[in-house]
Automatic annotation (TrEMBL):
The lineage of its organism: Eukaryota, Viridiplantae, Streptophyta, Embryophyta, Tracheophyta. SUPFAM superfamilies: alpha/beta-Hydrolases. Pfam families: Peptidase_S9. Residues 133-279 form the Peptidase S9 prolyl oligopeptidase catalytic domain. The chain crosses the membrane at residues 7-26. The keyword Membrane applies. This is Peptidase S9 prolyl oligopeptidase catalytic domain-containing protein.
Length: 354
């Protein structure tokens, strides 16, 4: 009997070790999913399919990897911001084109879409260090362009893209005007315990109470919670409260961390927003929240969606609620007629999540 129990214990231990070894060896395949199941790696469409004027831009990262991207121009006379968009972990930039088309229409902006290494037509294999290089290459390219206002480059990152964008904003306070985060996690370390509950005893982020014995073997921790507190630029947090992948509490923790040292933080949640569809379920309120944020922190914006402009003039009582701005920064405003309350645009705690 004792021999049988001993053999069982050895067997269980062996399976556990083999499982953990597989997780360590294959972790990039769990974090990065360049090809969706059943689909090809190639772009299913290009911006031309949606009648968007664009150019293919080829970049070279600091470590020599060749990267592909799209620069999509709103119009030759557009004086709005340029959005540097970082996508989620699965699929490629072509799968985000409908979102980008609507973004350009509503916000009157240019958009730069980067294919991470290993995604789309970019070469290489994804990793945290590599994608950080990729993001820097994209920003450096935008910063030297002569056909955009380089003082109004705004980073927009969703999910994994938010982690990428936070690192880039932290490292480039003089090149990035503002940061927008949507449904972003506190860290991959925390997400590991959510996706695979048994791992929470071995892996965890800065808020974890576990022993964190295997943190040292995680090659892409993406510890956004540790980074966001060092971002100096204004930050807009967009949180879908029905997010089925990243717990909404992660966005609230990111906001709470950021606002400790950055008074220019805004938090807006969307009760029906899920991980990938907050921009759809949020409707007009979603785009108005972003527009108000850009109006304040991208002051070169000269035009906006016609209906939105009409609603501003007819329904909105503009109130100065934010004092102490720099001369280049207009006073913060809120518009009750647009469904954006004053409390959503001040730097205090806004939405309890319990």
């Amino acid at each position: 009997m004792a021999g049988w129990l001993k053999a069982l214990a050895y067997g269980a231990g062996g399976v556990a070790v083999a499982g953990l070894a597989a997780l360590v060896a294959l972790q990039e395949r769990l974090v990065y999913v360049p090809v969706l199941p059943g689909l090809a790696r190639a772009y299913p469409i290009t911006p031309a399919r949606l009648r968007l004027a664009y150019e293919d831009v080829w970049l070279r990262s600091a470590d020599g990897v060749r990267l592909h991207s799209w620069f999509i121009r709103h119009s030759p006379t557009c004086r709005g911001p340029t959005i540097l968009f970082f996508q989620e972990n699965a699929g490629n930039i072509a799968h985000r084109l409908e979102f980008v088309r609507l973004m350009m229409q509503r916000l009157q902006c240019n958009v730069f879409m980067l294919s991470y290494r290993g995604y789309g037509e970019s070469e290489g294999y994804p990793s945290q260090k590599g994608i950080t290089y990729d993001a820097q290459a994209a920003l450096d390219h935008l910063a030297q362009r002569k056909d955009i206002d380089t003082s109004c480059i705004v980073i927009f990152g969703r999910s994994l893209g938010g982690a990428v964008g936070a690192v880039l904003a932290k490292n480039n306070p003089d090149k990035v005007a503002a940061l927008i985060l949507e449904n972003t996690f506190t860290s991959i370390l925390d997400m590991a315990g959510i996706m695979l509950p048994f791992l929470r005893w071995f892996i965890g982020g800065s808020t974890s109470k576990g022993p964190k014995l295997l943190n040292c073997v995680v090659r892409s921790p993406w510890s956004t919670l540790d980074i966001v507190g060092e971002v100096k630029q204004p930050i807009l947090f967009l949180s879908g409260l029905q997010d089925e992948l990243v717990p909404p509490s992660h966005m609230k923790m990111l906001y709470d961390k950021a606002v400790e040292h950055n008074r220019n933080c805004r938090f807006v949640d969307f009760p029906s927003g899920m991980h990938m569809d907050t921009w759809m379920s949020g409707g007009d309120r979603y785009w108005r929240a972003i527009q108000l944020f850009l109006d304040q922190y991208a002051p070169e914006v000269q035009s906006r969606d016609a209906s939105f402009k009409s609603e501003i003039s007819e329904d909105a009582k503009v109130v100065n609620i934010f004092r102490g701005c720099s001369p280049a920064c207009p006073a913060a405003t809120f518009a009750p007629g647009l469904g954006i309350s004053q409390s959503q645009f001040v730097h205090e705690q806004i939405y309890p999540l319990d």
